[in-house]
Each structure stands twice: as C-alpha cells, then as structure tokens.
Fold this sequence. Notes:
mainly alpha
Amino acid sequence: MFDIGFSELLLVGLVALLVLGPERLPGAVRTASLWIGRLKRSFSAIKAEVEREIGADEIRRQLHNEQVLELEREMKELKQDLLAPTQAPAAAKGDASAATAPEAASATPTAASQDKTAQP
C-alpha cells in the first residue's frame, strides 16, 4: 500500500529510537499499534455497514421494481378486460356490415342488369 522497503523501515526505527530514547520506544510502539488496530477495526466496521446498506438499498430497489412490474401487469389485464367487451360489439358490427355489403353488391348488379334489359 505505501510501498515501504526494509531500509526505509529501518531508518524510521532508528529515528524513533533517537527521538524517543530506549525507555519510551516500546511504549510508543505499543500505543501506535493499538491506535492502528482501532483504526483498522473502525474502517472495517464502517465498510461492512456501508456494504450492508448498499445491499439493503439494492434489495429495496428490486422490490420496488417488482411492485412496479406487478402494477403494470394488473393495469394491462384491466385494460384488456375493459377493452374486450367494447371490441366484441365493434367486431360484431363489422361482421354485420361486412355481411350486408356483399348482399348490397349482389343486389346492385341485378338491378342494373334489369335496367339494361328494359331499355333496349
């Protein structure tokens, strides 16, 4: 992470020994390691909580999407149910007009042929 080599670590230890002295150095190292441990635990706890929240948000989002899809399905079914009765009479009217159209078409040529035969 920090890319510290052995020589750099040895240099830091030597400077700490000169600054703190041999009596206080072990206590300082112990205190520093305790603080580093606390920071690591705190960061890991925060990371776990954030991941848990992200997971909870994802679950909430999936549930919301499923609810929206279910509502859309219900609306489509209701729309089909509402449109089905109105389409059936329209189809029946269309069939009735289609059935009367050939009759009218067949009646028209015979009337025209009768008129033609009567004129000559």
